[in-house]
Amino acid sequence: MSEVINYDSECLFCNIIKGDIPSTKVYEDELCYAFRDIAPQAPVHVLVVPKKHIPSLDAVAPEDGALVTHILAVIPGIAAAEGLQNGYRVVSNIGPDGGQTVPHLHFHIIGGTSLAGRMA
Ligand code: AMP
């Protein structure tokens, strides 16, 4: 079980990080947790989330800068472990118009195929 900072008992991803809701973990360290998306949109679809509950990229505060940088720094290693040597896409949806459905900051790692050029 992992400690969640700013734990929100109503938050799906906080409960996944805690281990109260099952997930398929692909990576974990003291600051973040990565697991397979339950409804993958590509052969590889991994979500990377901070253990600190932050609602979205739009809510990142200056003191969260090192945390976000850390997540961006671990993504290449996760992608390499997933076999994405030919490239991949990293997406973070923000708010209703951005298509965000889970209000806990997360980065999608999507790959394993040649992705469409258009993003919207
Ligand atoms: P977003 O729409 O950007 O907020 O992304 C939320 C993602 O969480 C979607 O791609 C969902 O398929 C995924 N998701 C929802 N519930 C679960 C779950 N229990 N385990 C893993 N992924 C989930």
Any descriptors?
single chain, 120 residues, alpha+beta, binds adenosine monophosphate
Report on the structure:
With 120 residues, this protein is an alpha+beta fold. Helix content is 20%, strand content 21%. It has 2 helices and 5 strands. Strands 1-2-3-5-4 form a 5-stranded antiparallel sheet, covered by helices on one side. β1 and β2 form a beta hairpin. The longest helix has 17 residues, at 65-81. The model has no long low-confidence stretch (mean pLDDT 96). The structure holds adenosine monophosphate. Adenosine monophosphate is lined by residues 12, 21, 23, 37-39, 47, 93, 99-102.
Give the arrangement of secondary structure elements.
Layout: H1 12-18, E1 25-28, E2 32-36, E3 44-50, H2 65-81, E4 88-91, E5 107-111
Antiparallel strand pairs: 1-2, 2-3, 3-5, 4-5
The structure holds adenosine monophosphate.
The site of adenosine monophosphate has 12 residues, from loops.
Name the quaternary structure: single chain
Order of helices and strands: HEEEHEE
Please report the number of helical segments.
Answer: 2
Residues in β-strands, percent: 15-25%
Radius of gyration equals 14 Å
Mean pLDDT: 96
Distinct ligands: adenosine monophosphate
DSSP E strands, number: 5
The unreliable regions are none
Termini separation comes to 37 Å
Q: Give a quick account of the main beta sheet: strands, pairing sense, barrel closure.
A: 5 strands, antiparallel
Strand order of the largest sheet: 1-2-3-5-4
* Structural class estimated from helices and strands: alpha+beta
Shape field: globular
Approximately how much helix is present in the residues?
10-25%
